[in-house]
Design brief:
The complex is a heterodimer. By secondary structure, chain A is mainly α. Chain A contains 22 helices and 4 strands. Among the domains of chain B are: 81 residues, Carboxypeptidase-like, regulatory domain (Immunoglobulin-like); 159 residues, Ferric Hydroxamate Uptake Protein, Chain A, domain 1 (Beta Complex). In chain B, helix 9 packs antiparallel against helix 10. The longest helix of chain B is centred in the N-terminal third of the chain and has 16 residues. The chains are: A mainly alpha, B mainly beta. At the A-B interface, helix 1, helix 2, helix 3, helix 6 and helix 22 of A face strand 24, strand 29, strand 33 and strand 34 of B.
Chain lengths: 457, 1038
């Protein structure tokens, strides 16, 4: 009898064990969250959005310059690898700048935030919810905007990946459809982001002004000048932004967080970037000013000695980001923020939009405001035309000096249709299809539905 | 000794007076038997062990054909009354061969019994029980304590090397306490989950390296080095599914069962073993001296397209930093001492048995300053509380202190890499007497060994408690509670004297806590009914939980090299050099139900069925449970009438088994996906998805078929075991690369399948018995591995690139090396008749360049010319052990071999490539220098645009076959009569030599090498070299 009781007892234990199997075997991650277990409260939503910015740091650490300057006329280079391939227009599917991995990491993180933030707030229409969503949409849009400008048609992915039942092998979407999505997302952001977060966050996070600034760029890229002017006007009316004096001009980059800055990717001693490797390692840096660039200055331009060492016969570094006289040979990574958009940039875009809309009288004061700060004489229509052929060209030239090495030149050339005209004598670029980058070989290998860009097939 | 040879032996022995006398006495004894028949007498005597003269207690002495008889007392003495001359006395004892003596006129009959080596009568440990080896229907191989004692090795895995059929053991590192790779019947998984399950005294233990510092290092520490081999009674390796399925989900790679010694009823036995020895490098490799080196470097610059001068200090023999002429092997290698003491006391009463042991090991590595110290302490006790209730506890504690001296690692933080390639010109000291710590981009390896810190301190407690209750006859209930806890601390420091940056030093600390605990409850049943219907079974459930925690910090800019604790660091980070979190914790649990039913009829027809259901927290709720059944049958055909006439056939059995086992070797949270905290933006806390979830993940399953044959011949003098198997593994867990557009690089999925098939032979023979004994143990195994299928969407160019040297491709084994085939060197420019170029637009290969095999004949050497250039899988491997004993001497000679495996010698690449001012081997003296030179060593070109050095190429693939005289053990046991007087039970002296001679064509340090723990098999990246050791010791028994 006793043994039977024991047996029953033991069997009961077995039954209990069986019934609580799921309790025993449900193990949530301890030092991290599970993919679906993260977004629970508002501080998670906030952290999720900062996680997108974290991916931004990787995406732009080096590539803002490779994409925006590497194929254009302002930079000279002795470096091998990507700098050489871009400069000599020998792009192949194995160069590093052909990788879009980091941009899609930004997009993936944003997609998670966009899906889960509304759930955290349970439908309540709170300002925090809106400004977090606004930032997520804006960051996704900026990533796609770079992707479209570099590769043309790209896969458009708007949902987070949470199951292998989802389509992993996504085809490319027409660039215009991607740009439509970018416009929609940035428009949402320009309404929903906070106008100001206070302190440094006004420069390193996307504010309404930041969304408007990128929107201006997108409209300019799409040649939608009326909307570009409207968006730029919102930026210029924004009390956060004003031009700095020439004396503070270098500090916009060397120190950061200036009143002229609209959005800069934040870095610090631990979260670093490659500005030094790009511009200031002496004979070893990726880039130095090209002859053509150095010869393009007007006499008396106060920016010139702030951009490079004018006393050197062959300057081997760019001073703009570090300060005049910078002579540090350290290969250590740099902690400067990288300014992606600033007021001078938007003012010149607005000027250009007016010029292209047949409103030179609106364009010239904007152009001259930038010129005057640099110690240059104001231009009227006649002098502008005599010096540069037309006002648009005068503005484009002004952008090439004012925004030099900041990652705008190549996109300006492409946007204005002058890339081939200017680069053909330098590196033989002559095919429109060659303007796009190749898609990296590894991306093609991983996704059988991806087609290599036409020129590189 | 075969009967027909007696005459010849007699002739032989007549040359020896002692033997002749012995034989005469023996024959006279036989002749006198008949004369004294009829009288009844009292006979007394003593039964001893033939080998060591020890008394055998409890031996049976029976009078053949009668019920009469008795047994021996604790000192081996017996007394029988009523014995008539002509009676036959039968002496028997468990574990010894039975001996019969016909009684003559003598009243004292002393008998020495020979230890039985009848393996089929032995029992072996299996999952949740013990079985007679004779009745096994699965495939199990066993290594006993005697065998282990002969090796004088420090860890249980090394002991298995070459001694167990089907078990391949290779060294990842020759460092003291270094990791080993163990594969049972090949690689069956695509991820790194290819290690067998380790079970110590019934407890599954942690067997992966927990060491986490120096993450770039290819090999870790061997967690099984925490077990003192002296404590081990036996090691069983369960190989086929019938044996392993009871361990279900973790058993696809076999199960290694380690059983420690327990006490037995009787007087306490004290054993003290002391040994001490010396080890040295097995082979020194050639390097260039300073002037040969300078010539080579200058030549490499002159061979550039635009010849340059080398950086001037390299060739300036007057520069104090570079005026040396050093062979770094001489500076770094030493004859290393080691010392080990084992003390064990075992015994017990009827109701309490104990085994108490303690050991201390102090082992120097052959590289200066490397050292491993280990203290182990163990207590196993068993109590019979009542007739029916038995309880017990095993607990062991190990303290390890390993000074790893940065021997591993990559680049110039590593001592080993620098050993062979550091330029001989770099001087050891500067003129002011200080260490030349850093020059030309290289750290001084002697400086690293002496002044850097890389210390691993571990504390491990493994314990288990059991309670066993006999419910009715044959039915027992047993409950086990077990735990395995490791606390490890690691310190690292790289001082500024070894850096080029003024005041730049780095330090790191890691503290690891790992706890595995479990509870097992099961019923065991064992009864025999009627005329031999034997029924057995096991049924139960278990729960096991694992928790891993790591805390630590990295620091830099310590104000002084003398204060190395992290409090002194000016910069502190909780991320490692790769930006990964240092501080992590994870947990994993498994709930299992298992059962077994066994039946046999008179040991003639045998059958067994096992089933285990495992639920793992690593898989999603719907996929959580895996079911792992197995079935096996055996037929002892020697018992059939047909074979009764074959008197030479003692035993013969056929076995078949089929079953499935699993593998859950993925991250604890892989299926749930991961949101990583600490992905911050400036000072704002961020979090980001880093692992994509896959709720559909489930077990990797291996189905295994096994057929075996066991035959014992000529009074068990020759025993043959043969096994053939086929293992199919499907639903392989593999981290599949996916498009980065998803935001993720890869996702773990169940994909494809792999097949392993093989055959194993084990021959145990007693060639000579009697006073001069000779026995041989020979095993040989062959395994063929093949990737059967891989889904299309994971392949690039039709295969998966597996690390730098291997690919995974359908139809090919896992260990395939893939690269360019080196066909020699162009003697002259014009020998390149087809104008073969490097790449489509690249330079044309010229005189002195390597001739690459142009696979597709397009005269362009590119990715498309890569091909299979080697296979790391051996054709066969095994070992042969010969034991000789004569009187008080015994000798064991053990050879280990592997045939047909290739090694990718990355270390030979490093020491023959002119990069980073590396030194070269003396092979470079026959390099191509001018047009017309016919050689196999290409010209030296600095920064060769044709990438001759950096290609994965057949030039570095070498035949890794070897035969190694792995172990020689000679021991002398002092006669009991001699040591009785000083109160000893046993006194033995021995000498063991390890890695004595290796016959191989391999040109690296040692062909027994495997730098990577995972799937990247057969690569020699420059591991800590193997050593040759000589150890002297004594065993004292009280």
């Amino acid at each position: 009898m006793k043994t039977i009781i024991k047996k029953i007892g033991a069997l009961t234990v077995v039954a209990v064990m069986a019934s609580c199997a799921d309790t025993l075997l449900d193990k949530e991650p301890i030092s991290n969250f599970s993919a679906q277990g993260f977004y629970k409260n508002t501080s998670d939503a906030q952290a999720g959005v900062y996680g997108i910015y974290n991916a931004f740091q990787s995406a732009f650490r080096l590539n803002f310059a490779l994409w925006g300057e590497g194929r254009a006329d302002a930079v000279g280079s002795n470096a091998v690898g990507d700098p050489a391939a871009l400069r000599q227009n020998t792009l192949t599917p194995i160069i590093n700048s052909a990788r879009w991995d980091n941009l899609y990491t930004v997009i993936s993180r944003a997609n998670y935030a966009i899906k889960y933030i509304p759930q955290v707030f349970g439908g309540a229409d709170s300002p925090l919810r809106n400004q977090l969503l606004g930032q997520a949409y804006a960051l996704r849009a900026i990533a796609y905007f770079y992707a479209v400008r570099v590769w043309g048609d790209v896969p458009l992915i708007l949902e987070p990946y949470e199951s292998i039942d989802q389509e992993l092998f996504v085809r490319k979407t027409d660039r215009e459809a991607v740009l439509d999505q970018i416009e929609e997302d940035l428009t949402f952001a320009s309404v929903n982001c906070a106008a100001s977060y206070g302190g440094e966050r006004d420069r390193v996070l996307i504010t309404r002004g930041g969304a408007d600034a990128f929107l201006t760029h997108v409209y300019m890229w799409r040649k939608d000048y009326a909307n570009a002017i409207a968006a730029a006007e919102r930026v210029m009316d924004n009390p956060l932004y004003s031009l700095v004096t020439m004396g503070d001009w270098t500090n916009v980059f060397a120190i950061g967080l200036s009143s002229e800055s609209i959005f800069e990717v934040g870095y610090n001693e631990v979260q670093t970037n490659s500005l030094r490797i790009l511009y200031a390692l002496g004979s070893d840096s990726y880039y130095f000013p090209s002859e053509r660039f150095m010869n393009s200055f007007e006499e008396g331009d106060l920016r010139r000695p702030r951009i490079y060492d004018i006393t050197a016969v062959q300057p081997r570094m760019v001073w703009k980001f570090f300060g005049e006289g910078f002579n540090d040979e350290s290969p250590d990574p740099s902690a400067n923020n990288i300014v992606l958009v600033r007021l001078a940039d938007i003012m010149l875009l607005k000027a250009e939009a007016h010029a292209r809309s047949g409103q030179p009288e609106e364009a010239l004061p904007l152009l001259n405001e930038i010129r005057e700060r640099a110690g240059l004489a104001s231009l009227d229509q006649a002098t502008a035309e005599s010096l540069y052929g037309d006002i648009e060209s005068a503005i484009l030239h002004e952008r090439s000096i004012e925004l030099s090495f900041e990652g705008h030149r190549w996109f300006d050339l492409v946007r204005t249709g002058r890339a081939i005209e200017i680069m053909q004598p330098i590196n033989g670029l002559r095919d429109e299809a060659n303007i796009l980058w190749p898609i990296h070989e590894e991306a093609i290998n991983r996704n059988p539905n991806l087609e290599q860009n036409e020129f590189y097939r | 000794m075969i009967k027909g040879n007696n005459n010849r032996l007699l002739l032989f022995f007549t040359g020896n007076k002692k033997f002749a006398a012995l034989i005469i006495v023996f024959m006279v004894g036989l002749l006198t038997v008949d004369d004294v028949a009829g009288q009844e007498n009292t006979v007394r005597g003593r039964v001893t062990d033939l080998a060591d003269g020890r008394a055998i207690e409890g031996a049976n002495v029976a009078i053949k054909g009668t019920a009469g008889g008795g047994s021996t007392d604790a000192t081996g003495y017996y007394m029988l009354q009523g014995v008539s001359a002509g009676d036959v006395l039968v002496f028997s004892s468990v574990g010894y061969d039975t001996k019969e003596v016909t009684v003559g006129s003598q009243t004292t009959i002393d008998v020495a019994l020979a230890e039985s080596i009848n393996l089929l009568e032995e029992t072996v440990v299996v999952g949740y029980g013990r079985q007679k080896k004779r009745n096994l229907t699965g495939s199990v191989v066993s290594v006993g304590s005697e065998e282990i004692a002969k090796t004088a090795l420090q860890d249980p895995i090394s002991v298995l090397q070459g001694r167990a059929a089907g078990v391949q053991v290779t060294s990842n590192s020759g460092a003291p306490g270094g990791e080993m790779t163990i594969r049972v019947r090949g690689n069956s998984s695509l991820n790194s989950g290819n290690n067998p399950l380790f079970v110590v005294d019934g407890i599954p233990i942690e067997s992966g390296s927990l060491s986490s510092l120096n993450g770039t290092e290819n090999f870790g520490l061997n967690p099984l080095a925490d077990i003192n081999p002296g404590d081990i009674e036996s090691i069983e390796i369960l190989k086929d599914a019938a044996s392993t399925a009871i361990y279900g989900s973790r058993a696809a790679n076999g199960v290694v069962m380690i059983t420690t010694k327990r006490g037995a009823e009787g007087k306490a036995q004290v054993n003290l073993t002391v040994n001490s020895g010396i080890s040295e490098l097995t082979r020194k490799l050639s390097v260039l001296n300073a002037s040969q080196y300078r010539d080579a470097v200058m030549e490499s610059y002159m061979n550039m397209d635009n010849p340059e001068q080398p950086y001037w200090t390299v060739v300036d023999s007057l520069n104090p930093m570079n005026n040396g002429d050093v062979d770094w092997q001489d500076e770094l290698m030493r004859a290393a001492g080691q010392y080990q003491v084992n003390l064990a006391i075992r015994g017990g009463t009827k109701n309490t048995q104990y085994a108490w042991s303690s050991s201390y090991l102090d082992q120097d590595g052959i590289i200066i300053n490397s050292n491993y110290k280990r203290i182990t302490s163990r207590l196993n006790v068993d109590f019979n509380v009542t007739d029916k209730l038995k309880i017990g506890q095993s607990i062991s504690y190990t303290n390890g202190l390993n000074n790893r001296i940065n021997a591993g690692g990559t680049g110039n933080l590593s001592v080993i890499r620098e050993l062979l390639v550091r330029p001989p010109i770099m001087s050891m000291y500067l003129p002011d007497g200080s260490l030349n710590g850093y020059s030309l981009g290289r750290r001084n390896p002697v400086g690293i060994a002496l002044h850097a810190t890389h210390l691993n301190k571990s504390n491990r407690i493994v314990g288990s408690q059991y309670l066993e209750y006999q419910i009715i006859e044959g039915l027992k209930f047993r409950s086990n509670l077990n735990f395995d806890f490791t606390a490890m601390k690691e310190d690292e420091f790289m001082p500024s004297i070894l850096d080029y940056r003024e005041g730049y030093n780095t330090g790191a600390v890691r503290s690891i806590n790992n706890l595995t605990w479990g509870n097992e409850n099961f019923f065991q049943y064992d009864r025999t009914f009627g005329d031999g219907h034997h029924v057995g079974g096991v049924a139960g459930f278990s729960f096991q939980n694992w928790r891993y925690e790591r805390t630590g910090l990295n620091g830099s800019f310590f104000p002084s090299d003398d204060i190395r604790t992290l409090n002194a660091a000016s910069v502190i980070s909780n991320k490692d050099a790769n930006g990964m979190d240092i501080n992590v914790a994870s947990e994993h649990a498994m709930l299992s139900y298992f059962g077994r039913v066994m039946y046999d009829y008179q040991g003639k027809y045998l059958a067994e069925i096992n089933l285990r259901a495992d639920g793992s927290s690593r898989f999603g709720r719907d996929k959580r449970f895996g079911y792992f059944p197995s079935a096996s049958v055996g037929w002892r055909f020697s018992e059939e009438g047909l074979f009764n006439d074959l008197s030479f056939l003692n035993d013969a059995k056929l076995r078949f088994s089929i079953g499935s086992t699993g593998n859950e070797a993925i991250g604890d949270y892989t299926s749930q996906g991961e949101f990583l905290v600490g992905t911050n933006y400036l000072d704002y806390s961020g979090a980001a998805p880093t692992v994509m979830p896959n709720a559909a993940l489930t077990w990797e399953t291996t189905t295994q078929y096994n057929a075996g044959l066991d035959i014992a011949l000529w009074a068990n003098r020759l025993i043959l075991n043969v096994d053939a198997y086929l293992k199919d593994t499907r639903d392989l867990l593999y981290s599949v690369p996916i498009p980065r557009e998803t935001g993720f690089a890869s996702i773990t999925q169940n994909i494809g399948s792999i097949r392993n098939r093989g055959i194993e032979f084990l021959v145990t023979s007693r060639n000579l018995v009697g006073e001069f004994q000779w026995s041989t143990n020979f095993n040989i195994s062959a395994n063929r591995n093949k990737v059967i299928s891989l889904p299309e969407n994971v392949l690039t160019n039709g295969f998966i690139q597996n690390g730098a040297y291997h690919i995974l491709k359908e139809g090919l084994p896992i260990g395939i090396f893939y690269g360019w085939r080196f066909d020699g060197v162009y003697a002259r420019d014009e020998d390149n008749v087809n104008g073969v170029t490097h790449g489509a637009q690249g330079p044309v290969f010229a005189g002195g360049d390597p001739i690459w095999h142009d696979l597709n004949g397009d005269h362009i050497i590119d990715q498309n010319d890569r091909q299979i250039i080697g296979n790391a899988e051996p054709n066969f491997f095994g070992g042969i052990s010969n034991d000789f004993s004569y009187k008080n001497f015994s000798l064991n000679i053990f050879f280990q071999f592997s045939q047909g495996n290739d090694i990718y010698s990355e270390i030979n690449h490093q020491r023959n490539a002119i990069v980073r001012y590396n030194n070269l081997s003396t092979d470079a003296l026959r390099r191509w220098r001018q047009q017309g030179d016919i050689t196999d060593f290409p010209k030296l070109i600095r920064d060769d645009p044709k990438q001759s050095d950096s290609r994965v190429q057949s030039r570095w693939v070498e035949d890794g076959s070897y035969i190694k005289l792995k172990n020689v053990n000679l021991r002398y046991r002092f006669a009991p009569s001699l040591i009785d007087r000083i109160g000893l039970r046993q006194l033995e002296a021995f000498v063991t030599a390890t890695n004595l001679i290796t016959w191989t064509k391999y040109t690296g340090f040692d062909p027994d090498v495997n730098s990577y723990a995972g799937l990247r098999v057969g690569v020699d990246e420059g591991s800590y070299p193997q050593n040759r050791s000589f150890i002297f010791g004594i065993n004292i028994g009280l």
